[in-house]
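Deliverable D5.2: sample structural annotation.
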Amino acid sequence: MKRIAIIGAGVSGLTTARLLTDSKRERREEEIVLFEKESKPGGLIRCERIGGSLFHTCGGHIFNTHDRQVHEWFWQHFNSEEEFLKADRNSVVFLPNGQHIPYPIENHAYMLNESLQRLFIHDLLQLDSASAHPASQPGNFEDFLLQRFGKTLYDLYFGPYNRKLWQCSLKDVPLDWLKGKLPMPTREEIIYNNFNRVAEKQFVHSTFFYEKHGGSQFIADRLAEGLDIRFNTDIKLIRHTGRQWILNGEVFDTVIFCGNIKDLPSLVQGVDVSAYTDFIDALSFHGTTTVFSEIDKTSYSWVYLPDESYRPHRIICTGNFSPTNDSGHIALSERNGNVQKTTATIEFTDYVSKEEILDGLKHTPLHPTYITHKYNRYSYPIQDKNTREMIASLKELLSAKGFYFTGRFADWEYYNMDAAMKAAMKTVERLC
C-alpha cells in the first residue's frame, strides 16, 4: 500500500489530506498520515476562546470563492444554511480628516469634500489620456495604484495604507499577487458607480460566509475529522533514500509539504537543493501582531486605517461576524452596564511589544481595550520578479522524487483560504 505523508495541518494540509482520503475510499490503495507540530489543526486560521469570546489568532478569516471547483468541494463538507451565516461585507476607510468612506473608496469618491472630488476628477481625465500609451503599463504595485486610481486616492488611502501593511517601497512589490485581492474597476466603472452610487459587489469577499459557532476553527476541525493526524510532532528531517522518504523513522512513498519553504533546505536530505538555498533565504515576508480587543459597538466588518498617526493598519470586527463570538466579554460588559461593545482583532505589521500595543491602542479609533495578543512571524509573503520561476523550478526537481509542496508559505503566495484550497487541488491532481 502506498504511504503519503503530509506535513502541516493548516488549510492546505487539511484540504490535501481530505481530498486524498475521500478519493482513497474509492481506490483503497493509500495510507495518508498528517504531521502537525501544534496540538490542534488550523494554522493561520486557528481560533481560541478567551474568556468565552472567540479570538482569531491571525486576522479574521471568512469563506467565499468565485472558483466553481472550490465552491462545490467545500459545500460537500459543510451545510451553508445550518452551519453558516451569510453576510454582506460592510467595510470602511477611516480618513485622516475624520471622514468614514465606505470601501472600496474609489466607488465613493462622491463623499469626499469638494476640493478632493475635483482633484479626483482631474486624475481620472489624466489617466484616461495616458492609458492609450503602452509605455504607461504599470511595472510594480505603486505604478499600478497610481495608474488605476490616480494620485489623489493614492495619497489619501492606497499609498499610506499599503506602506503600513508591507513596510517597504511599493515599487518593490510585484503585481502578480493582486489577482482576486482587490476590486479592479475600470475608469468607466468608477465614474458610473459614483454617478449612481453603486456599491462594489464583484470582488471575492463582498459577501461572505461565516461559521455560526467556532469561527474558522470550525472549518479546520471539520476537515480534520477522521484523518490520521500526529499532533505535537515537529518534523526535523525528511530523508530521501533513493526510492522512498523517511520521516520520524517511518517510510513513505510520497511527501506533501505544507509548511514554510524557508525550512526546506535544512529539512530535506538525499536530494540536492543547494542551488536554491540563497533564493529561499532571500525571500522577504512580514509577520502580524494580532491584538484581541474590546471595541465600541459598530456595524462594520473591516475598518481600514491609512492614517499614519494610527499604528495598526486595520480593525477586523470579528464580534460582528456571529453572535456566539462575543459570548464572554460582551456578557461581562452587560453586567457592568455597558452593552455598546463588541470584540475585534486589531492588526499591527510585524512584532510589536505589549507596551507598544497598549500605547498604540490609546490612539486607535473605536476605543479599543486590550484583552490579549499573538505574534505570528509569518503572515504575508513578499514576492520579487524571480520568486515564482524559482519555486516552479524547485517543484519540478522535487516532484520527480515524489516530494510535493503547496500552501501560502510553501508556494510563497498571498493565498486567501479558497486560493489555498485551489492550490491543494492542483497538487493532488498532479499526484493522481
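Annotation notes: The CA atoms of residues 108 and 194 lie 6 Å apart. The mean pLDDT is 90.
The annotation will be released with the project's public dataset once the embargo ends.
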